[in-house]
Amino acid sequence: MPAVELSGAAVRLGGRTIWSGVDVAVGDGEFVAVLGGNGSGKSTLLKAVLGVLPLAAGGLSVLGRPAGRENARIGYLPQRRSFDSGTRLRGSDVVRLGLDGDRWGLPLPLPGRFASSRRQASARVREVIELAGAGEYADRPIGELSGGEQQRLLIAQALVRRPQLLLLDEPLDSLDLPNQAVVAALVGDICREEGVAVVLVAHDVNPLLPYLDRVVYLAGGHAVSGAVEQVITGETLTRLYGLPVEVLKASDGRLVVVGQPEAPAHHHDRHEHVH
Could you report the per-residue pLDDT of 192-218, keeping only the tens digit for each? Predict the structure, then answer.
């Protein structure tokens, strides 16, 4: 059974159809990127998977049940959060919030009778911090860390409950190219080694190319899903956008899209909000 399956799905916001007729399936352990222009509905797709936005038409199952029913088994990283340089909360405490912050807020000292569960929680936090490669700086104030270091800790936070599905909304946004490559590799490793299905919203597919199984491209209120070489082509994008689009491959393997309103390397969904 797919981790996520949309069939003829449509979403409407403020009387406007964002996308419709969307057929997408994400298998267990697959790494799928969601691409598209500003306002095409990439973040909206994640919100539908979480059950925050109901469908206007079609069907959607998540981990075998209706959207919103299995959110405890989903790790979610929303669009880029920023930490003020004066934030003194330790990186490890930020990760711990993903384990029980929805119930208790900041981790508090617990009475002795909870010592066993406290040790288990601490062990799990350390486990995912090491998995994310953040052990060297996890006990420093998160406001002192670089953007890439913060992002590793936030990914660890999303993993701490052992999710079967990981939803990442623009995790590479605002990172420099070396950190984009590092975070993309980290997510790819997690997908393979942990068997977690990953749906990642991105505005540039290039850092993700070595790790992706498939992409979903949203444009013109519709979606195309498939392997990168099938979807990111001049023919496919011309059909989606309704205007001539050419896809070029640079000598280093990077894809360059020419002729569409906003090329994948320049998409920003930070202002794509639900009202």
Answer: 998 999 999 998 999 999 999 999 999
- Domains of the chain, CATH where assigned: 4-86+163-266 (3.40.50.300)
Which residues share a beta bridge with 168? 77, 200
Kindly state the percentage of the chain with pLDDT values over 90: 71
Q: Which of 68, 70, 131 is nearest to 95 (CA)?
A: 131
Q: pLDDT per residue over 57-94, tens digit each?
A: 999 999 999 999 999 999 999 987 678 888 999 999 99
